[in-house]
Amino acid sequence: MPYYRRNLYVLSLTVFLATLSWNQVMPFLPKFIKQIGGAQNLDYWVGVVFAMQSLAAILMQPLWGKLGDSYGRKPMIIRAGICLAGVYFGMSICRAPWQLAICRFLNGALTGFIPGSMALIATNTPEQHAPRYIATVQTTSNVGLIIGPMVGAVLAMRFGYRGSMVVSGTAVMLSTMLVWLLVQEPNKVSAVEKTSLIEDFGIALASRVQRSVLLVVMLAWMYPAAVNAYLILHLETLGGCRPDWFPGIIFALPAAAFVLMAYQWTRVGEWWGYDKTIAVGLISGGIGGLTLYVVHNIWLFAVIYFVMSIFTASIGPSVAAVTCTRVDESFRGRAYGIQQSAGTTGSLLAYIVASLTAARWGYGAIFLLTGGMLLVGGLMFRGMARRWEKRPIA
Question: Which of 3, 19, 35, 325 sits most deeply, having the most CB atoms within 10 A of its CB?
Answer without folding.
Answer: 19
